Amino acid sequence: LIHFYKRILITMAESKDTGGGSSESGGGGRGSSTGGPLGSPAPPTCLVILGMAGSGKTTFVQRLTAELYHKSKQPYVVNLDPACREVPYPANIDIRDTVNYKEVMKQYELGPNGGIVTSLNLFATKFDQVLELIDKRVKEKSTEYVIFDTPGQIEVFTWSASGNIITEALAAKYPTIIIYVMDTVRSTKPVTFMSNMLYACSILYKCKLPFIVTMNKIDIVSNNYAVEWMKDFETFQDALAGETSYVSNLAQSMSLALDDFYSTLNCAGVSAVTGQGLDEFLAAVDKARMQYDEEYRPEYERLLKEKERAGGGAGQGEASKDGGAGASGGLCHTKRREVELPENIADDVYLRHPGDEEEEYVEEQYDEEKEEESREADSFNRYITNRENKLINQMINSKKS
Length: 401
Description:
Elements: H1 2-19, H2 23-26, E1 45-51, H3 57-70, E2 76-79, E3 93-94, H4 101-108, H5 112-124, H6 127-140, E4 145-149, H7 154-158, H8 161-171, E5 176-183, H9 190-207, E6 211-216, H10 224-231, H11 233-241, H12 247-257, H13 259-263, E7 266-269, H14 278-314, H15 316-322, H16 368-400
Parallel strand pairs: 1-4, 1-5, 2-3, 2-4, 5-6, 6-7
């Protein structure tokens, strides 16, 4: 994964040098709508949807996709959940077409979560192809949004090596925004709300990307209580005063520390079922996109230039020895050098195309009628055996008497 990750960054750096992708060469500055040379299409905004299991991520992606289709802004949708049976939206790229989740579980003898982690790691080895497909789509058709739906187990994507590689590779090339979907129904208790906010805060400081807290299911419970708790410290303290559990003491001490986090937090309330609040959400996305252009992208370019100057001073020999490691600075700040993959890892990955349809994996179907017949046959055989033994015992006893 590390070598693959370096290869992506080197390719992006070379394309930037040869294609004139800098703001100075384009002549448009930060306000230019083009992402490279004059006349080239603007880069799309990548939305990485994260959230706890059951918060409504997939339903939200479905509603957002339908809304964008309705506004004639057809998005490019990528499904990163290898364990789902079906998705309720048209996926342009589906991890299930690349990695066979159940075969990974069988071969490596893994459980469900381990299978998802390994499947994402396998998919990350092909992520350069995903970037190429996104580039091809942008050149062929105007694309404003690229949406990534992630697995229900948030920790699998957030803390795994593949999650780092995917988010950081995207952020180095496109404006990337982290969307944290929060369940407003389950967060009405102050302690649960605080736990959600702590998780959101940890993801924000880990990814170091524009961040939007999307409060879902406002058609059931309004998000006004959450907005009030974030804006008014005293109101949240009053709500915590009614809690008698031991963890409430921790929540009270942590609430003051999160006050600065709330002051700059970009949030929006939505309903994935009714579509309520999607206009406000898209406005928040535009605001986060501006934040990326004004803060994150210049910082990435500055650190990239520093790495290039440092690499040039070290000499060509060191540069070739590092294999382009100097290009992995900036937003791509995490290097997991301890990751080691098995030699036969590529055997578990396959890219499906129309010529392979007859080889498509077919899930075993449960035949209830056949199972019932099998149980009846076993029961009948046991009855016959017991009957025979009983008759034999009776004959033996009669002979003895």
